[in-house]
């Protein structure tokens, strides 16, 4: 008869809360990696399977089915209903029925400016862009068939390099994430104010949609007795794109209990920088794995870079020799 034994020298592994947290963040890292790698593929697929709705003047829409200029070679499948289409050439009344994401090509001089009918007619709208947003303008009366194909190519390139605001706005609206623009700096980089409770979710969205490089993170005291701010400078680095996109994020918190979600598990470069912000200003970054002082000794009292900080009235003089 066999009997299981448990000698005292056998140590059973235990699962602590910290190890479970690391396993959870490890899974999140791989999820980020998979999703961020799939974004360019999805953009390529969307740009290659546009579904235009065939509504428009016959002199313009007749170019769609020519043997030399047919849309099928570019992956465009004409649809008879706006509820199945994501590209319109241009039928204003049907725009609202199309699902997101949807795109508009303004085709012909009459569509772009109102043409010759806009000079002496009060009832003619001088451009379709006054009613709906236009992605690509296709001038001509009528445009040449090759110009239509060129407009489709430009639209596909535009879809492939959509900026962060166009991509994250639907996600923010769906999840109730609110931010406020604080304007642009001298280089044209926009600064956004994010609530502390929304910062981690928005950070994940920004990373997934291409902002894979955090240039710097810092913090400052807004005013004596006022708010504390944590600042993040993000850059979107993409292969084959010369002009990078940048955005600045500011997260404000009360100095009485300054707590901000850490983004260490999104951008690992914030490790020492968040520790320095904690050391100098006392901002607690939740879920940071090593949040402790980095410049001052652990026994130091107070936060040296706060504007209401009172320096201790003693100085340690060391022998230079």
Automatic annotation (TrEMBL):
Matching PROSITE patterns: COMPLEX1_20K, COMPLEX1_30K
UniProt KW keywords: Chloroplast, Iron, Iron-sulfur, Membrane, Metal-binding, NAD, NADP, Plastid, Plastoquinone, Quinone, Thylakoid, Translocase, Transmembrane, Transmembrane helix, Transport
Family: Belongs to the complex I 20 kDa subunit family.
Residues annotated as transmembrane: 28-50
Gene Ontology cellular-component terms listed: mitochondrial inner membrane; respiratory chain complex I
InterPro entries in UniProt: NADH_DH_suC, NADH_quin_OxRdtase_su_C/D-like, NADH_UbQ_OxRdtase-like_20kDa, NADH_UbQ_OxRdtase_30kDa_su, NADH_UbQ_OxRdtase_CS, NADH_UQ_OxRdtase_20Kd_su
Organism of derivation: Vigna unguiculata (Cowpea)
Membrane-topology annotation of the record: Peripheral membrane protein
Record's protein name: NADH dehydrogenase [ubiquinone] iron-sulfur protein 3
Catalysis: reaction(s): a ubiquinone + NADH + 5 H(+)(in) = a ubiquinol + NAD(+) + 4 H(+)(out)
Lineage of the species this protein comes from: Eukaryota, Viridiplantae, Streptophyta, Embryophyta, Tracheophyta
Compartment(s) where it occurs, according to its Swiss-Prot or TrEMBL record: Mitochondrion inner membrane
Functional note: Core subunit of the mitochondrial membrane respiratory chain NADH dehydrogenase (Complex I) that is believed to belong to the minimal assembly required for catalysis. Complex I functions in the transfer of electrons from NADH to the respiratory chain. The immediate electron acceptor for the enzyme is believed to be ubiquinone.
GO biological process, one term: electron transport coupled proton transport
Every NADH:ubiquinone oxidoreductase 30kDa subunit domain range: 193-311
GO MF annotation: an example: quinone binding
Chain ranges of the NADH:ubiquinone oxidoreductase-like 20kDa subunit domain: 93-155
Domain of life of the native organism: Eukaryota
Stretch forming the signal peptide: none
